[in-house]
């Protein structure tokens, strides 16, 4: 129920990979592998950065999150 309400109010970017139902890690690894192969074929440099923000929602004010959801029209009940 919550997921459906959020999807209507806050559409997810198709490039989003975290916290969604998808192939997940295997899909991301295959994409990375293809990008590396392409860069090698084209003799181009490529940088890769992995970012994992630990406890991202734990460090954000819950009041701020609720306010943002209200602004997007998400039913608080």
Automatic annotation (TrEMBL):
Top-level lineage group: Eukaryota
Name of the protein described by the UniProt record: POLR protein
Source organism per UniProt: Cephalopterus ornatus
Source organism phylogeny: Eukaryota, Metazoa, Chordata, Craniata, Vertebrata
Protein's gene: Pol_3
């Amino acid at each position: 129920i919550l997921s459906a309400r959020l999807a209507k109010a806050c559409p997810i970017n198709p490039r989003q990979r975290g916290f969604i139902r998808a192939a997940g890690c295997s899909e991301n690894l295959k994409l990375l592998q293809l990008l590396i192969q392409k860069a090698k074929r084209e003799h181009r440099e490529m940088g890769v950065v992995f970012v994992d923000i630990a406890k991202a929602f734990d460090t954000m004010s819950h009041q701020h999150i609720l306010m943002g959801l209200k602004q997007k029209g998400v039913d608080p009940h």
